[in-house]
Amino acid sequence: LARAYEVAAVYTQPPRPAGRGHGVRRSVVHEAALRLGIGEIRTPPSLKSPEVQAAFAALAADLAIVASYGLILPRPVLDAPQAGCVNIHASLLPRWRGAAPIQRAIEAGDEKTGVSFFVMDEGLDTGPVLAMYEIPIGPGMRAGMLHDRLAALAAEHVTEVVEGYLAGRLVPRPQPENGATYAKKLRKEEGHLDFAAPAALLERRIRAFDPWPGCWFFWQDVRIRVLEAEVVTGGGAPGTVIALPLTVACGEGALALTRVQREGRRPMTADELQRGFPIPLGARLS
Asked: The whole model's pTM is what?
């Protein structure tokens, strides 16, 4: 995009404490802009103040491109660029509006997803769509992997969308009323596996919540993260280990936990876990 247009400024989240040492860390967008020497970098904590809005308007931009910014864009900001603000959203709108479209698509068992370029309004991902690009969600697809594929897909098409929109070849189309769903923000506690749920749903959550918040259970007050699992046949009281090395009965079917990680330990197979931290047949996991 920077090769085709002048980038007047880059807006991103302010540097924040991160990691175990809580050292102040810049966002990945900030680091990329520094590395590429693209534009002036601005990191306001909010876009609500008149001063910040005036500084944005003073750029006299033709267009603003927004992707996973994390701050609300007030009406004066939306109206400042001549052609408005175009958001790149990681779903096929109107399905999965909201904060976690990638994770919710995998969790729901969707067979496809994609990226939508739309002109922003004051609603939550409700603006008219310029273009959408689709990819399948293959078996075993995890959220981190899907995120990277969607990011590459958006980068591949962003210049042609901007060119088409500014030239009038792409006309914003209102989103249909039917088919709208909301991708609610992830909460850490969602990663605690409830084995009363169907095994197929839990397997999808293990993939959808990777890398964050992850999925886990407890045995003897030790938290064990589940990295990989397979849906298998079997039954019993939900949470019961019904086969070794580590097959667990669920509300529907059973889940073979194949790759796990104890707190403070390396990832390992279920066989390796059993050799160092046995979980017996008949154990009830919580």
From this structure: 0.95
Q: From the CB of residue 2, how many other CB atoms can be counted at a distance below 10 Å?
A: 13
Beta-sheet strands, E only, within 110-235: 112-119, 129-136, 182-183, 216-219, 222-232
User: In whole angstroms, how large is the CA radius of gyration of the chain?
Assistant: 23
Distance from C-alpha of 29 to C-alpha of 43, rounded to nearest angstrom = 11
Rounded to whole angstroms, the Cα distance separating 260 from 254 reads 16
Q: Cα separation of 257 and 192, whole Å?
A: 14
Q: Among 29, 200, 10, 180, which residue's Cα sits nearest to residue 95?
A: 180
DSSP letter assigned to residue 154 = H
Q: 134: which DSSP letter?
A: E
CB neighbours (10 Å) of residue 179? 10
How do 182-183 and 97-98 pair as beta strands? parallel
Q: What is the pLDDT of residues 24-78, one digit of tens each?
A: 899 999 999 999 898 799 999 999 999 999 999 999 999 999 999 988 999 999 9
User: From CA 222, how far away is CA 225, in angstroms rounded?
Assistant: 10
* Structural domains in the chain, sorted by start: 44-183 (3.40.50.170), 188-276 (3.10.25.10)
Q: Cα separation of 121 and 84, whole Å? A: 9
CA angle, 130 then 182 then 215, to 5°: 120
Residues 6 or more apart in contact with residue 269 via CB below 8 angstroms? 245, 258, 259, 260
Give the count of beta carbons closer than 10 Å to the beta carbon of residue 94: 20
